[in-house]
Amino acid sequence: MNCVLLLVLLSAFVVMVDVSINLSRFYKTAGSLSAAGAVGDDGVVRRAIVTVLLVANLWWPRLLSLFNSVSGLVMIGAMGFTLTQMVRHREVVAMLAGGVSLWRAARPVLVVAVAVSGVQVLNQELVIPKIAPLLTRDPGSSAERQVDAFPVKLTADGQGRVFQAQRFRPEGGVMEKVNVWERSPQGQVTRRITAERAVYERGEPGAVGWWRLEGAAVVPLSMERAGNAASVGRGASLPAAPERIETDLSPTTLLINQFSTVSQSLSWRQIVSVMGTPGVRPEVAERLSRVGLGRVSALVCGVLALVVCMPFYLTREPRNMIVQSLKAAPLAILSTVGTTLGTTAAIPGLPAGVAVFIPVAVLLPLAIAAWTSIRT
User: Fold this and answer.
1) Which of 77, 109, 202, 353 shows the greatest Cβ crowding within 10 Å of its Cβ?
2) pTM, to two decimals
3) CA atoms in the 13 A half-sphere facing the CB of 334
4) 223: containing domain
5) Number of folded domains in the chain?
């Protein structure tokens, strides 16, 4: 119950802060919907109701993602409140008098912590990937169901090509007004491929997919330098354009490059699929490896941080719990912040598979020392 109450209070606080900052944007979006006739007449009451619905529409997927980020800190807070109530009402003294050790009293707390971690895993693997497009919205696009489209800036693939598109629609994997520059092994541009439209098609499992080009044309480097617009307009003879381009630059990779939150929203199956794509760029594979293994490290660190802070509350004699909380707070905050930094920041000279587990290596001996320090 304390976990649930803390999550509700924290979620309400975060939403209210965001609404207080972006209320004008939500209200403006509600007004644009009313002007377009999507929600009926533009009255003050109706616009206020639409604004509230826009806030709810934007934040319900964000709160599910927020749960994964704050569950470790919430578990420590819930443990503190629970044991404080038991100490205040002398329940711990009664248990000790009945022959129940403090380690036995701590067991249900650990069971709940593991259960909350299990819910976090299910949320990350089953729920978050399905609502990932909703997490990239802002208050100005809170009425949309997903990211409609965005331009693709110059983006290199694993084969050395550089892609650029005027518009990319993630739903369906379609690029419009596409330019692809092919380069030699030395990095020099050899030719440019243009297309009115490109549609992504997946290959066999473990194989590279491809972009099928529509209205494609090839512009050699010589014509590029000479100014080819007039020549193309007069129907100059150009090399045959390819029907498709095989590349590791899939729609998922484009979303990862465009929005940092997308990589955090992928399930383990999606991460393994992207990393297993032949020709995937090393920096993308390393980033996804850090994301996937960082989740494992964060789950373990959440339970270890709980164990580190537990001796401050689980005591034989009744103590001032405010003082105990002031002692435990720095450890809880440092553990949470250190886990976040350790699982997301790259450390020069260390592979991602090792760097993300540094917080575990730090917290594990502290947790063992804290657990054995409990006097019962």
Assistant:
1) 77
2) 0.73
3) 10
4) 150-250
5) 1
